[in-house]
Amino acid sequence: METWMRLMASDGSIVFGRVENGYLHEYEGLDQPVPTGAVLSLRALTLLAPCAPGKVVALWNNFHALAAKLEKPVPSHPLFLIKPAASVIGSSELIRRPAHYAGKIVFEGELGIVIGKRCRDASVEEAESAIFGYTIVNDVTAAGLITENPHFPQWCRAKGFDTFCCLGPAIVSGFDWQRARVVTKLDGVERQNYPLDDMVFSPAQQVSLISQDLTLEPGDVIACGTSLGVGSIVDGATVEVTIEGLGTLSNTLGTACAQSGSLAAVEGAA
């Protein structure tokens, strides 16, 4: 497995590369994984979201256990919505409650698929080769807005606010998702703990089927959907989503002051 990160240097420039022994070996970019030769100490860099997706494709009802609880049929094609690029933040960045919304905000700990090359009408085999690696997602939702209008469920609005898509702390290539679990803690109390092998559609199947509907570009992310244990976040609470091998994604909602990203969150990544 290899760990990849996107960080900000002291001069404001953004660098991307492979992390090893406390150093970042810089590459041209996710879509051009060619080393530049530069090697930078992580201590001099600030953590960002590990990629800058043009879009995040977020799945719904992609786990057998949750489908059974909701008494919903297992879908024959991925059910998804789009989260905009402006919703993306990295680990340790603040989730901002919308100023006009005082209702329930919920967390959803998920696996994220990071696309490495343009993908359209891909076979499962082609889709597998188009996956650059995996990251962690907290798919934040203003749950009260989904059914605010009885004539039109507002999934995209409820999930698309700025800061409502937490990604990170890193991308790991060569990750064995079938052996992993998603563990979500709210202020240190475990709320989710579910196996990724309960997914309805495997990552390669997701990429293949979604690519039949829209073109996936390098850096785009597919949030694989969540399972049991989704819950509310109160202002000031911290959500930590951990997948062994990928690290821990940590974000706080509401009133706390924003802090620069912590590289300690990468502990546990390969």
From TrEMBL:
One Pfam family recorded for the sequence: FAA_hydrolase
InterPro entries reported for this sequence: Fumarylacetoacetase-like_C, Fumarylacetoacetase_C_sf, Rv2993c-like_N
All copies of domain Rv2993c-like N-terminal, residue ranges: 4-50
Annotated Fumarylacetoacetase-like C-terminal domain residues: 55-253
Source species, domain of life: Bacteria
This protein's UniProt keywords: Metal-binding
UniProt KW Metal-binding keyword: yes
PANTHER family on file: ACYLPYRUVASE (PTHR11820), ACYLPYRUVASE FAHD1, MITOCHONDRIAL (PTHR11820:SF7)
UniProt-recorded name of the protein: 2-keto-4-pentenoate hydratase/2-oxohepta-3-ene-1,7-dioic acid hydratase (Catechol pathway)
The species this protein was found in: Paraburkholderia hiiakae
Lineage: Bacteria, Pseudomonadati, Pseudomonadota, Betaproteobacteria, Burkholderiales
